[in-house]
Structure formats: C-alpha cells, structure tokens
Write a structure and sequence with these properties.
- This protein is mainly alpha-helical and 95 residues long.
- Helix content is 45%, strand content 11%.
- It has one domain.
- The protein is built from 4 helices and 3 strands.
- The chain has a 3-stranded antiparallel sheet with strand order 1-3-2.
- Strand 2 and strand 3 form a beta hairpin.
- The radius of gyration is 12 Å and the shape is globular.
Length: 95
C-alpha cells in the first residue's frame, strides 16, 4: 500500500503524461529502490522529517509547489502537495 501511495504522489507531482514516461525509466526504478531501501524503513508515526527521493537523469520540470526540484521530490509531513501531505496519507493507509 505504501508503494502505491508513493507512486500516486509522484504522479500528482509530475502530471499524468510525464508519469507515463517516467514510470518506464531507469530513473523511476532508482527512485523506487531508494524509497524502498532508505525511506520506507524510517517511517514511524509522529515522524516530522522531510525525505528527498532522487530521479537521476529524469530531466523533470521543476514544480516547487509540489516539492519537485532538480529531479528530486521532497516528501514532507507538512505537505509537498498542498491537498495530501505524503506522510499523513501514509499514516491513513497504514492504520
């Protein structure tokens, strides 16, 4: 469930068309690996830490309001996406 929420979050941040291309790329696989190995194990209730997920070489358009800059997506409990902060959404899925 957490990986699905992460993918949905990425899709919201980059948009449907960009996500379609990104989803098939080595950059996306690298980001999923980083998420699985480095970020997901660190998630705990009440955590207020920001996390950065890299999409190396993806050449994504910067969307600072979505937490996306320089091929790096920030996951924040305070909301890199205004309507659905990633970590809060994760907690809802986990409970």
């Amino acid at each position: 469930m957490l990986n699905k929420r992460f993918k949905d979050h990425v899709k919201q941040a980059v948009g449907d068309e960009e996500y379609f291309n990104l989803n098939k790329s080595p950059a996306f696989r690298a980001a999923i690996k980083q998420f699985d190995e480095d970020i997901k194990p660190d998630f705990v209730t009440g955590n207020t830490k920001n996390y950065s997920v890299r999409f190396p070489g993806a050449n994504l358009d910067d969307e600072p309001t979505m937490g996306l800059k320089n091929d790096c997506l920030t996951l924040s409990p305070y909301g890199s996406l205004p309507s659905k902060p990633f970590i809060q959404s994760w907690l809802i899925v986990r409970i």
